[in-house]
């Protein structure tokens, strides 16, 4: 976690987040707070917790006086405590994947009804949960699939293509009213 000081009093949380992610990559910030200095003044500082230590190191490794926000010179220092203690970490993740949602209609045929590119997939500790992060019409979503609801996972590679994919099939589940029965098959292209 780091503290970045010197933002103008007009800086918003979203603007500071966008600015820092230009240096560390989109989605690299886990938590962010903006605070005024206790002594007052027209400047603010941001406390930033990144998804990975390497993101913080990217900002900390900038040469002195090289980080500017508009006409404001920024200083950076390391912080000891996290904003969110014990943040959720993922054992494995895949970035820039293509997700296909649909259902299997025969042994070798898959009927897709939605495709999302530039998605990411993360596997929780002990592979007990799989998290899908996707964007639909400029809105971000997180889908969580627990180990108990997975029927099978297969790594496939059709003869006609070079790409590999995971086929994740969930068990049939009924909702509380037992009106709808859904089957979710997720294909992740690697």
Automatic annotation (TrEMBL):
SUPFAM superfamilies: RNA-binding domain, RBD (SSF54928). One of its GO terms (molecular function) is nucleic acid binding. Residues 2-82 form the RDR1/2-like RRM domain. InterPro entries: PH_RDR1/2-like (IPR057590), RBD_domain_sf (IPR035979), RRM_RDR1/2-like (IPR058763). Pfam families: PH_RDR2, RRM_RdRP1_2. CDD domains: RRM_SF. It comes from the Eukaryota. Residues 99-169 form the RDR1/2-like PH-like domain. This is RNA-directed RNA polymerase. It comes from Carnegiea gigantea.
């Amino acid at each position: 976690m780091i503290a970045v000081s010197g933002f103008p009093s007009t800086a918003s949380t979203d603007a500071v987040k966008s600015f820092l992610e230009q240096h560390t990559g989109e989605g690299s910030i886990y938590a962010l707070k903006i605070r005024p200095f206790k002594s007052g003044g027209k400047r603010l500082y941001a406390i930033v917790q990144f998804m990975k230590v390497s993101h913080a190191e990217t900002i900390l490794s900038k040469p002195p006086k090289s980080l500017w926000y508009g006409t404001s010179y920024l200083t950076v220092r390391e912080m000891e405590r996290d904003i969110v203690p014990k943040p959720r970490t993922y054992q494995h993740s895949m970035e820039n994947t293509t997700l296909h949602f649909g259902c299997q209609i025969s042994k070798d045929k898959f009927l897709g009804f939605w495709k999302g590119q530039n998605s990411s997939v993360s596997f929780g500790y002990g592979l007990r949960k799989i998290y899908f992060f996707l964007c639909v019409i400029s809105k971000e979503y997180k889908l969580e699939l627990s180990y108990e609801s997975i029927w099978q996972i297969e790594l496939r590679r059709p003869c006609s293509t070079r790409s590999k994919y995971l086929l994740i099939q969930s068990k049939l589940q009924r909702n509380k009213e037992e009106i709808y029965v859904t089957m979710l098959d997720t294909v992740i292209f690697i």
